Structures are given as C-alpha cells and as structure tokens.
User: Fold this.
Amino acid sequence: MTKLYNKNSEIEKRRRLRQNITKAEKIIWDKIRDRQLENCKFRRQYSVDKFVIDFYSSELKLAIEYNYFAAT
Assistant:
C-alpha cells in the first residue's frame, strides 16, 4: 500500500513552508492551535500525496488551504 500522508519525501517542503508562514496564515494558526477551536487538534503543512495543506484536523476531517495569490 502506498503511503499518501506526510510522505518522507515532502519533509523539507513542509518545513520550509512552516518557516515562511504568511501573515494571514499566522493569524489563522494563532486562532486554531492548541485545541482552541472545538477542542480539536490542527496540524500545519500536512501533506496528502503531492499536495501540502496549510492546516488539517483529522478529528473534523477538515482541511484549510489559504490561497495567497487569489487573495491579492
């Protein structure tokens, strides 16, 4: 079975994205981290296949993707 989630090959990409967080992502992260939203754990820069999702909660099965280019 192929592993689709948080592939080792995407580690550096996810790390780089976490280190270069945008202002909007920081605002969102400050509101959802540490189980502040519905007492659910969110992860930053969670990868699924070749895509990296900005925020993901497995408990809610909710992915949040902020598109900087669409917002500008």
Remarks:
- The chain has three helices and three strands.
- The mean pLDDT is 86.
- The chain has one domain: 8-71.
